[in-house]
Write a structure and sequence with these properties.
heterodimer; A: about 450 residues; elongated; B: alpha/beta; 5-stranded mixed β-sheet; about 30% helix
Chain lengths: ~450, ~180
């Protein structure tokens, strides 16, 4: 069972000793400070569930200490104690965010009740945080939309890998929803009630990434005003998601490998080794194996990360899911804009189904959001889509691929009636049969 | 605050200050021996308690009394508890029933606030010896490193009123007993 912690701030040694002993017997982890500045120093590197602070102290008084703590830790539970109770100071303390205000000496029963209430508040805050995290993770898991074979296969891989502790690399083009897959793995794992901490490696410089991942001590560098926990520390018992892993520098690759092997690290500017039990999930839109061969990504780190690889298919390879995704995004944005649900006319839907979506699901989502904003509020028409009249195609597609795709679509449209399909394509039936054979098209 | 590591227990010493009820002291001795399964000795102390009296609060300073018992009557091979019949306080609390060094050698307990008449309840002296015994066992439990327990009926449950003391047993719950024996 987790021990609750308490910090006692009082200039009278006898009061500190009495409270120290009382809380020790009650099973608390207790720390004491004889004045406000020492308390602030302790709070720089330690967290406490409850802070008991005397109001009358030499130097900074309890009310000023309360205000300073609230600036750094807004959720801190601070109880102000004093032998000089006045209504004004009590009101001021409560206005400044004190949990409660008591006059010493206390009745033992009053102290017990007060601490019990404060602990209830601590546990509610923790529960609220966990539930919020859980709800947001669950909501995001529901966002994986699709009934195509490719999505079904990927979700079954997610389910299989979630229960293990194995490191995972999620690969896929930009906008395919790699982060959603990471969230789904976490939400289905035994770590689901602990945090999922995301770090976008590509957005940070080497030194910022180092401080972000490992945390830093106060004064470690210019601007390090307070001690800060790193993402690895925050992910204790949970999962850390490292997006755009291919962008990290050689130095960070070495650091990362060391942390993954020892599950321990030191904050920037610190000397205390911190251990954390986390699972690592990475994502990239680049070919890491190729980078290893080229020497730009460490082979040992690659093998440590790549225990399981999940590939998220691009949207053009799961076009069956487009109508489902369209309806999902229509529902999502109409709801968030407080508008009645709109529909999409058949021509507009057909255009979307023909489009190759180089930006994948993210691009589709943006298209729908824009169409709802600019549309007439009843039906999304072709003119509401920012695609123009011509179907935009991916630069990487070969002519053969496009031909195969087009023939398959026409055949499907005419229910594999060869004569009608050939007529629509402007070729004769023999040529169409030859093309079907060449591209191995099946009904 | 002196905190020692627990050593194999040879005996418990009960040191009484101004308690004249021989039957009560004998009951405390024999029951403590039964509960802790060890030798328990009783000794009567003659220390003058006036120096521990706080005129402003009209109570006795339990921190100072605990220190006095530790310095004058405690030894490393035994746990020693001072038994009093005076109103105890510590600076931060209006009163206490007793206190102890957690995982240490010494404790104090007082019967002063364990009688019904202090709370305006009809006097029932039958409760008093058992309440005192529970307080003695509770404080000695702290000496053995036990913290307050949330199990209903365990003697290590925190008590701030006599009614709380009456609700618990004069013995440890299985979890505390296990911790005590190891």
């Amino acid at each position: 069972m987790k021990k609750n912690s308490i910090l006692i701030v009082d200039d009278e040694a006898s009061v500190r000793d009495s409270l120290y002993n009382w809380f020790l017997e009650d099973g608390f982890e207790v720390s004491c400070a004889e004045d406000a500045s020492k308390a602030l120093k302790i709070l720089d590197h330690e967290h406490f569930d409850i802070i008991l602070a005397d109001i009358k102290m030499p130097g900074m008084d309890g009310l000023e200490l309360l205000r300073r703590i609230k600036q750094i830790i807004p959720d801190a539970i601070i109880i102000i104690i004093t032998a000089f109770a006045t209504v004004d100071t009590a009101v001021q303390a409560l206005k400044d965010g004190a949990f409660d205000y008591v006059t010493k000496p206390f009745d033992p029963d009053d102290l017990s009740h007060l601490i019990r209430n404060a602990l209830r508040q601590v546990s509610l805050q923790e529960e609220n945080e966990t539930l919020r995290e859980r709800v947001s993770v669950l909501e995001q898991v529901e966002d994986i939309i699709g009934e195509s074979e490719a999505v079904k296969k990927m979700l079954s891989e997610v389910e299989q890998v979630a229960q293990s502790n194995a490191s995972v690399i999620i690969t896929g083009e930009s906008g395919t929803g790699k982060e959603l897959i990471a969230k789904a793995i976490h939400a289905n794992s035994l770590r689901k009630f602990f945090p999922l901490v995301s770090v976008h490696c590509g957005a940070l410089t080497e030194s910022l990434l180092e401080s972000e991942l490992f945390g830093h001590e106060k004064g470690a560098f210019t601007g390090a005003v307070y001690t800060r926990k790193g993402r690895f520390e925050m992910a204790d018992n949970g999962t850390i998601f490292l997006d755009e892993i291919a962008t990290i520098s050689s130095k960070m690759q070495v650091e990362l490998l060391r942390v993954l092997e020892s599950k321990s690290f030191v904050r920037v500017g610190g000397n205390k080794t911190i251990t954390s039990d986390f699972r690592v999930i990475c994502a990239t839109n680049r070919d890491l194996k190729k980078m290893v061969n080229e020497g730009s990504f460490r082979e040992d780190l690659y093998y440590r990360l790549n225990v399981v690889n999940i590939n998220v298919p691009p949207l053009r390879e799961r076009k069956d899911d487009i109508p489902l995704l369209v309806n999902y995004f229509i529902g999502k944005y109409c709801k968030s804009m407080s508008r009645p649900i709109v529909t999409m006319d058949a021509t507009a839907m057909k255009r979307l189904e023909d489009y190759d979506f180089p930006g994948n699901v993210r691009e589709l989502e943006n298209i729908i959001e824009r169409a709802i904003v600019v549309g007439n509020g009843k039906e999304i028409k072709l003119r509401d889509l920012p695609l123009g009249k011509a179907v935009t195609i991916s630069k990487t597609e070969s002519l053969n691929h496009l031909e195969k795709q087009h023939i398959a679509q026409v055949l499907t449209k005419y229910g594999w009636n060869i004569s009608r399909a050939a007529q629509a394509l402007g070729i004769d039936r023999v040529t169409l049969y030859n093309k079907i054979k060449k591209y191995d098209l099946k009904q | 605050m002196a905190i020692n590591t627990m050593k194999p227990l040879n005996q418990i010493n009960l040191v009484s200050f101004g308690i004249t009820d021989k039957a009560l002291l004998e009951m405390l001795r024999s029951q403590t021996a039964r509960i802790f399964s060890c030798k328990v000795q009783h000794k009567e102390a003659r220390t003058e308690l006036g120096q521990f009296f706080d005129g402003a609060r009209r109570q006795y300073n339990a921190d100072s009394l605990l220190q006095m018992v530790h310095q004058n009557y405690s030894n490393e091979d035994a746990k020693t508890i001072g038994l009093f019949q005076v109103d105890l306080f510590i600076p931060i609390l209006t009163y206490i029933f007793g206190q102890a060094y957690l995982n240490g050698q010494t404790a104090v307990a007082s019967g002063y606030r364990l009688v019904d008449e202090r709370y305006g309840i009809k006097t029932n002296r039958q409760n008093y010896p058992e309440r005192f015994l529970k307080e003695v066992i509770h404080e000695l439990g702290h000496n053995f490193g036990l913290i307050h327990c949330r199990s209903v009926g365990c003697v290590m449950q925190a008590s701030t009123y006599v009614e709380d003391i009456d609700l618990k047993n004069a013995d440890f719950c299985p979890a505390c007993r296990l911790q005590l024996e190891h």
